[in-house]
Amino acid sequence: MNAKRKFPHGILRINSYLEQLKPAEKRVAQYILANYEEVIHLSITKLARAADVSEATVVKFCQHIGYSGYQELKIMLAQVEQSGEQERIYGEIEADDEIEEIIDKIFQIYDHSFQNTKKLLKQSNIKEAIDLLINARRVFFFGFGASGIVAEDSELKFKRINYSAEALIDNHRQKTMASLLSAEDLVVAISDSGRTRELMESLNIARNAGAKIMAITSNMGSPVTEIADTILLTSSKETPFRGSALASRMAQLAVIDVLFLGAAADKYDQTLEALDKTRVVMQDSRIK
């Protein structure tokens, strides 16, 4: 929580704060996302009129997402245009789509999520996050629902390279273990929304016990980012089938893979030895 943080810029930053904005500020954000190429040439007065808000609301919006004012936001948006990194919008899955269309759309959604998450990781404190993992006595992955599945995958990966790792996806187990943690332990909180009440209850207990906290989320400014020592942002444009958490789950898995490989590379020889041992014992489980 005291570490210097890096934040995404331009469109990715707006998206990461979108769910935390007040209604008027969200109208500004939505107009910018839909018309960013136009916005970089607009005065604050014209943007306010287009978004049907006051000029003061535009300024508050800019400050809410971490810029000093409208001029700095325009500079960042202009850099996005020059680098060709504007967000591509893909078609949503419709009821009458053929299976070939669904295949195309879902992989476009995944590609979009992966590419933007990649940019966010390069702008994050990823090395600091890997150091937290390497130096932790024990690592606990907290998550619920689809994020819980990612937590369980994380436990399997890190156990295979001899980390003391455990996934906790039940609130009572999370709270019990959180109360027994120390400053040598790390909790990796996985939550796309960053607003799950049960998760925050467990994290507050872990924080009071002195544990370090790493957050993997797509929502900057959410409660989980306020309590975390290190934040790793994902980008996930979901389909109308939001309950399936398609893009968010894939983005979270990608971040975990980066952490896993970063930690593994730090102790390369020990990692290979551990992987060889686990591979040998699992070979007998295969049907020949």
Describe the protein.
The protein contains 13 helices and 5 strands. The chain is α/β, with parallel strands linked by helices and 288 residues long. It folds into 2 domains: 10-83, Winged helix-like DNA-binding domain superfamily/Winged helix DNA-binding domain (Arc Repressor Mutant, subunit A, Orthogonal Bundle); 122-283, Rossmann fold (3-Layer(aba) Sandwich), CATH 3.40.50. Strands 2-1-3-4-5 form a 5-stranded parallel sheet, sandwiched between helices. Helix 8 links the parallel strand 1 (138-142) and strand 2 (165-168). The N and C termini lie far apart (51 Å).
Task: Give a short overview.
With 288 residues, the chain is an alpha/beta fold. It contains 13 helices and 5 strands. It has 2 domains: 74 residues, Orthogonal Bundle (Arc Repressor Mutant, subunit A), CATH 1.10.10.10; 162 residues, Glucose-6-phosphate isomerase like protein, domain 1 (Rossmann fold, 3-Layer(aba) Sandwich), CATH 3.40.50.10490.
